[in-house]
Design brief:
Multidrug efflux transporter AcrB transmembrane fold; 21 helices; 7 strands; 661 residues; elongated; mainly alpha; two-stranded antiparallel ribbon; five-stranded antiparallel β-sheet
């Protein structure tokens, strides 16, 4: 299957077998031309410097160009879907720009904290680089699930997209750090506005604090919204795309509509039954009699309006008349009869066309196919069934038969990758469940929009069943892309937990430090995918809208509300591991009075509030920077020590008398 639109000569899908190709190429080229400037605008808004924004876009373009070259080379040895390269390039562009955004943002944050250029680059690779590597692995696992559908265009599309994503990760971890090292202080060249960096207690910190103060009150309504959005998914109906997915301005669609009005019998749904016999000739008296009985049995089926076959030429002829005709030599037949005979009968096969007014994607047409396939005996031959309804049934069974192992493999491998990154049993499980929720909500929205047609006038399409390949393609792509943000957020939360040892504070600080990046990365993805909505082919339009909806829901409702609420409810269980030793090491402890790394929130408070004491005892350790309650506890501890060590003034060797701390 080399294209999503598969043509047949006897169905609406035959209209313009090659006509959709220029339309698809135009739509996908338009999407690429729109998404790139929009992504650059988002990066300029985030970085507010031309150098940083151009660096991220440049790395993305380089990854896409190399990926297209690799996919083109792959087409030398296997078939590639006509638009697989375009779709893979759009996904790769969004991923590459996102990874560059993560790396450059962390590098600039380290520089702003006072680190040298070399130290900032090393710290960036240790933190953001690790997150990018695991994120790319998660995205590759999701796209790799399409390889389970070997024999269809899905496998080649998944392979092409995985190649582009792998190259994006490679460039983000090699080429981009080299450029950062070369640029040095020039990374902030071309400032277009004063950079606005929010304080630690900024917007995202307040959001996280508000959610964690009332986790149940936030979690239940948010889950209700996601489940409500996903409810239409239970009404999903699927059918392969045909000429009616094209706009009426395309020649193939105009021709089909003209034929349907002028010759309604020729545009009816045709189910082709093929009687295959083990020997020649196919038209013996016994076999003609069996074909006559089969034709009359088919005509009595519900929804069938007629049968075109060699035994339905003249309604006045009986079974015996057709058997006598079969014994007539072909040379004795009129030329018109010989031409008709050559069109519907071969040496060992005979064709029967079953006509119905039911649409090809309807349950009535599929019921006819199932009935024909339930009894395949025709004399000593076998009955085979094809046509548009049969194709829909077969491709749906093909997809469903491979969907379960594909989904199971993606979920299991993603869980293992997240466990290796986080060292937690619960967090990967929650991440998988959150991804499934956002994907279900986007699927429900797709059914509500494109199948039931609620936004048909706004998006300019005709509603109808969804293509069977669309849910699979969206699941594999969205699962990996959503995990992209999950990895970034949880990696930053783990980093803060290792520093503070407080889950609540780690969630708030992790969201504060990653919320802006996730929102910006999601905006880049949404702008890249929403460009698909301008496509004229309904399948491409639905794919773009589905990807954009899934990313938007994941970056807002899931990451901002559900993740903090669930982490607050589970507390320290988030970091639990069943193994003998804890995979999450305890927080690092720092002696009182020791210098703190520059840029850490609260470092100036600790240096003022905790001077070294000359009490003859070892300084008590504290965990990281102190908040207000921590400083009160520290002052009380100092007062107690002062009372215990207080001696009469002037005594030799006694420390000087100290007042209350």
């Amino acid at each position: 299957m080399g294209s999503l639109i598969v043509g047949r000569e006897d169905s609406p899908r035959s209209g313009g077998r090659n006509e959709p190709l220029p339309v698809l190429e135009h739509d996908l080229l338009l999407a690429e031309l729109i998404s790139l400037p929009l992504a650059l605008a988002v990066l300029l808004f985030v970085f507010r410097t031309i150098a940083a924004a151009a660096l991220s876009v440049g790395v993305g373009i380089l990854a896409v160009i190399t990926g297209i070259a690799a996919a083109t080379a792959l087409s030398r040895v296997t078939d590639i879907a006509v638009y697989a390269v375009n779709v893979a390039s759009l996904i790769g562009l969004g991923v590459a720009i996102d990874y560059s955004l993560f790396m450059v943002s962390r590098y600039r944050d380290e520089l702003a904290a006072g680190a040298s250029f070399e130290a900032a680059l090393v710290r960036t690779m240790e933190t953001a680089g690790k997150a990018v590597a695991f994120s790319g692995l998660a995205v590759g696992i999701g796209l790799g699930g399409l390889l389970f559908f070997h024999g269809s265009f899905l496998a080649t599309m998944g392979g092409a997209a995985a190649i582009v994503v792998g190259l994006a990760v490679a460039y983000a971890l090699t080429f981009l750090p080299a450029l950062l090292a070369v640029l040095g202080p020039r990374i902030n060249w071309g400032r277009i506005a004063a950079a606005r960096r929010g304080s630690f207690d900024g917007f995202w910190h307040r959001i996280a604090g508000w959610v964690m103060r009332r986790p149940v009150a936030v979690l239940l309504p948010t889950l209700t919204v996601l489940l409500a959005l996903g409810m239409p998914f239970v009404r999903l109906t699927m059918a392969a795309a045909d000429v009616r997915t094209l706009p009426r301005t395309v020649g193939a669609r105009d021709t089909f509509e003209a034929l349907r009005q002028a010759f309604p019998d020729q545009t009816r749904t045709r189910i082709v039954a093929v009687a295959e016999f083990p020997s020649t000739p196919a038209l013996t008296a016994e076999r003609i009699g069996a074909l006559y009985d089969l034709s009359r049995r088919i005509q009595r089926l519900p929804g069938v309006v007629g049968v075109d076959s060699i035994v339905d030429v003249d309604p006045s002829m009986t079974r015996e008349d057709y058997q006598d005709l079969a014994e007539t030599p072909a040379a004795s037949l009129p030329p018109a009869a010989r031409r008709m005979l050559s069109m519907i009968a071969g040496s060992d096969i005979v064709l029967l066309s079953v006509l119905t007014d039911a649409p090809a994607a309807s349950d009535e047409a599929r019921a006819i196919v199932r009935t024909l396939r339930s009894d395949r005996r025709v004399a000593d031959g076998t009955l085979l069934v094809t046509g548009a309804p049969a194709h829909d049934l077969d491709i749906t069974e093909f997809i469903l038969g491979r969907a379960v192992p594909a989904v199971g493999s993606i979920v299991l491998m993603t869980y293992v990758v997240l466990f290796l990154l986080l060292g937690s049993v619960l967090l990967p499980f929650k991440a998988v469940i959150m991804n499934l929720l956002s994907i279900t909500a986007s699927f429900g929205a797709l059914v509500w929009i494109f199948q039931e047609g609620h936004l048909a006038s706004l998006l300019h399409f005709e509603p109808g069943p969804l293509d069977p390949t669309l849910p699979v393609l969206l699941f594999c792509a969205v699962f990996g892309l959503s995990m992209d943000y999950e990895v970034l957020m949880l990696a930053r939360m783990k980093e803060e937990y290792l520093r503070t040892g407080d889950t609540t504070r780690a969630v708030a600080e992790g969201l504060e430090r990653s919320g802006r990046l996730i929102t910006s990365a999601a905006a880049i993805m949404v702008t890249a995918f929403i460009a698909f909505a301008l496509a004229r082919v309904v399948v491409v339009k639905a794919m773009g809208v589905g990807l954009a909806l899934a990313v938007a829901l994941d970056a807002t409702l899931v990451r901002v509300l559900i993740v903090p609420a669930t982490m607050r409810l589970f507390g320290d269980l988030n970091w639990w591991s069943p193994f003998g030793r804890r995979r999450i090491p305890p927080p690092r402890r720092r002696p009182i009075g020791s210098p703190m790394p520059a840029g850490l929130p609260g470092a100036h408070l600790l240096s003022r509030a905790v001077p070294p004491r000359h009490t003859g005892r070892a300084a008590a350790p504290v965990i990281g920077p102190l908040n207000r309650s921590g400083r009160r506890r520290l002052r009380r501890r100092r007062r107690r020590r002062s009372r215990r060590t207080r001696t009469p003034a002037g005594r030799p060797g006694s420390p000087p008398r100290r007042g209350r701390g």
